[in-house]
Design brief:
With 260 residues, the chain is of the alpha/beta class. The protein has a single domain, classed as Vaccinia Virus protein VP39 (Rossmann fold, 3-Layer(aba) Sandwich), CATH 3.40.50.150. It is 37% helix and 20% strand. The protein contains nine helices and nine strands. Strands 3-2-1-4-5-7-6-9-8 form a nine-stranded mixed beta sheet, sandwiched between helices. α6 crosses α7.
Length: 260
């Protein structure tokens, strides 16, 4: 869970995030949440916020529809953002998993949800150990699956396997804390997972906190996303030009874009 980071300070989001670059749509309700997101405890870096919004925009362009899932809700900081990306008119659902072990965690999550989440989104909340999740719980049609659960080795591997089974053939898995020195077992779990499944999933995007994976056969589609001018403009608009960079490296035998 994000409990390890709950008490740390949060930087304010740049106002440019709510006045998006050309063609990247930030709805009014999402914009309101982004202005207040620092009031929700948790750990969610702005590059990751922008990457998820851009990913949703790109998937919509290519009519990639499906559910959105998350393991590791904590107080709802990222879950509420994901709720704003769900398109219920297309039959999409939001699937959330957490055991809510912290004192008053369910009540605080519900309070945040009622303040900031879209009124028309009713999440399916699975309140149990993520290691018990199966395809019956998640389905197999998620277009985005966010993994930010417990940070031990076995849970990390299992959560990634759950995400792999849950995504549709052109879906994306976003994995948190892969390179964090605070939770090294997540790094270990990620590399154990990739050693086994690298023929199925591969990274295409990295930011300061997350690794974004897609099925290898659709990597060209997501490379196209990262090469679009409107996407790059949106991703870079939160920083001054001399502070923003996006470049390419090799990782797990594939080309990845690194956004800083």
């Amino acid at each position: 869970m994000a409990a390890l980071y709950a008490k740390r300070p949060h930087a304010k989001l740049d106002s440019s995030l709510t006045s998006a670059a050309p063609k990247i749509l930030v709805t009014r309700s999402l914009g309101k949440y982004l202005k207040k997101i620092a009031t929700v405890e948790g750990w969610f870096w702005e590059p990751s916020i922008r990457n998820l919004i851009a990913l949703d925009y790109f998937q919509d362009l290519y009519n990639i529809t499906g559910d959105i899932g998350e393991i590791g809700v904590y107080y709802g900081k990222s879950a509420i953002l994901l709720a704003h990306l769900v398109r219920p008119e297309k039959g999409e659902r939001l699937l959330l998993n957490d055991t809510f072990p912290e004192p008053n965690q369910p009540e605080i999550f519900l309070k945040n949800w009622q303040r900031f989440a879209p009124r028309n989104i009713k999440p399916l909340i699975i309140e149990r150990d993520s290691r018990t999740l199966t395809k019956r719980d998640t389905g197999t049609n998620c277009r985005i699956f966010h993994v930010d659960g417990n940070h031990d080795l076995k849970t990390t591997i299992h959560d990634l396997e759950t995400a792999l089974k849950a995504i549709r053939p052109d879906g994306v898995v976003a994995v948190d804390d892969v390179f964090s020195i605070n939770v090294p077992e997540v790094s270990r779990g990620f590399f154990v997972f990739m050693t086994k499944y690298y023929r199925q999933l591969a990274p295409f995007l990295l930011d300061i906190r997350k690794v974004y994976l897609a099925p290898r056969r659709v990597l060209p589609l997501y490379y196209q996303m990262m090469e679009r001018d409107d996407v790059r403009s949106f991703l870079g608009s939160w920083r001054k030009p001399n502070q923003y960079s996006i470049h390419q490296e090799n990782f797990w035998g594939t080309r990845v874009f690194i956004v800083r």
